[in-house]
């Protein structure tokens, strides 16, 4: 039996709360696929992104069938799996990442099946030991989470981030807001990651304004289709920040020096 | 033991609705409304009329004399191959198109493996004047060309799925991605008893007309409602769900689900999910799933595009897990031989999928008094190129 105790340094930590208190606006959450472009690039790239100005780091666990993701993340996931990245390997690599990145909130984003095969308890324990703050599992519905996993997440001081879309009802948004204390992930419009949701600026603004006026408990970050300074700034007008993944990965793709490419990309946003 | 899903769509430990939030409003709308729409007299009247006058139901239950002699038992064939469009798939699409209309949807998407579901969807979309987009694995478009042509003739757009193994799983991924991208005006007509709740139950109910008719027809022809065996092939499992449905609570009826062994169950080219799968999540459902030790979904293999799927519907996972159904596996080669046998003994060319069910007769220990109903789920026109090549008839 695994004991349910966690390392002492984790118990009291809420890096999200610390961050949002320190910097309530203009937060930049950057996503990379673990094991991309090379198997061992994950932790070095996280360090580069944090140094370049990322406020939150989101680490994608590659999956063979990423249903909510567009072509870029599908492709990076395929490459990462071919490189040999696995959830176990990633969790191993992340042990010790906190010595370099003591304060930056870090999230794992992945699909449910690899997590289930490892076991939810084991996943939470290893993630917590690595100092991970939160988890995004898009295909784990809120109801299943509340009934079966919320207690485990709490025990390991992990926060579950929920997605909200323009179609999510007000009642459901309030329920999801109650279920988390990290942030709410506002999907910018209809479509997949890396899409062109932000093209319809007026629809997006109406949606983000509507959510902003709900006075929710949690901060809000906007994701999907945020690709450059213009779309980042636009998203930040009615939210606390935004999430960029596909555009960053596109910038890294094929670069001789992925670190230089990543730094340059972050500078183009800020 | 209950074979009906719980309110959250569970059959035992299998089922549920593991969907991203983007799909929640659509799936929730469907979940809230499907039972009342299916029970609505107006819906039923229209559905039954279309099944009769458009699909051609009831389909015959045919006593196959020469096959019966060969196997030393009485074998009946449920002739779903005689449905309009050539397979059982249309039972579901007729029902779902009426449902989509009642939900106010204007645009229909579907995935297809062998192309039969795609054709059946394109057909009902033409009938009702709705836009139709069918996702099909690029490999399957190549091996089921006649069905691609039929879909195009019917006015559907066929979009190739080019990721992964370029087969049914990948086509389903693309259809789900389309639904995420079109969250308000689109209905996704899933073709099998897979996907998030309520789809497995919805599709099983729409296909259950098969076993409803079998019971009546067997009573008329054999003086008994219950056969000893019901045999059906399983990819996702829609024809099997329909053929089993009204026998699930009749323990004297042995249900036989036939999976594709590909090159053999213990090779790396197989689609025998009940043997090779472990509980996992695919396409919104917790079910038996072929996957590696890290939870990555592995690529199945079957010569038959309709059985080439790494999961099975959650009802079937439960039937396998609980032992209610016997699962057997048939290789590519044995299926081809069975297709030839059925063609030459009964004058019926079955679909490659159905050929697996025929081959499974070899694996049953039949007694002369046994009555077997085999669900002849589809006709083999689409597979002629494969048959001629593989059986060296060209």
TrEMBL record, chain B:
Listed cofactors: pyridoxal 5'-phosphate
Reaction(s) catalysed by this chain's protein: (1S,2R)-1-C-(indol-3-yl)glycerol 3-phosphate + L-serine = D-glyceraldehyde 3-phosphate + L-tryptophan + H2O
Domain annotation Tryptophan synthase beta chain-like PALP: ranges: 56-378
Positions of modified residues (N6-(pyridoxal phosphate)lysine): 89
CDD domains assigned to the protein according to its UniProt record, in alphabetical order: Trp-synth_B (cd06446)
Enzyme class: lyase
A family per Pfam: PALP
Recorded superkingdom: Bacteria
Entry EC number(s): 4.2.1.20
GO-annotated molecular function: tryptophan synthase activity
Keywords tagged on the record: Amino-acid biosynthesis, Aromatic amino acid biosynthesis, Lyase, Pyridoxal phosphate, Tryptophan biosynthesis
InterPro entries for the chain: Trp_synth_b_CS, Trp_synth_beta, Trp_synth_beta/beta-like, TrpB-like_PALP, TrpB-like_PALP_sf
One GO cellular component term: cytoplasm
Pathways involved: Amino-acid biosynthesis; L-tryptophan biosynthesis; L-tryptophan from chorismate: step 5/5
Subunit structure: Tetramer of two alpha and two beta chains.
Family: Belongs to the TrpB family.
Function noted in UniProt: The beta subunit is responsible for the synthesis of L-tryptophan from indole and L-serine.
Protein name listed in UniProt: Tryptophan synthase beta chain
Source organism phylogeny: Bacteria, Pseudomonadati, Bacteroidota, Cytophagia, Cytophagales
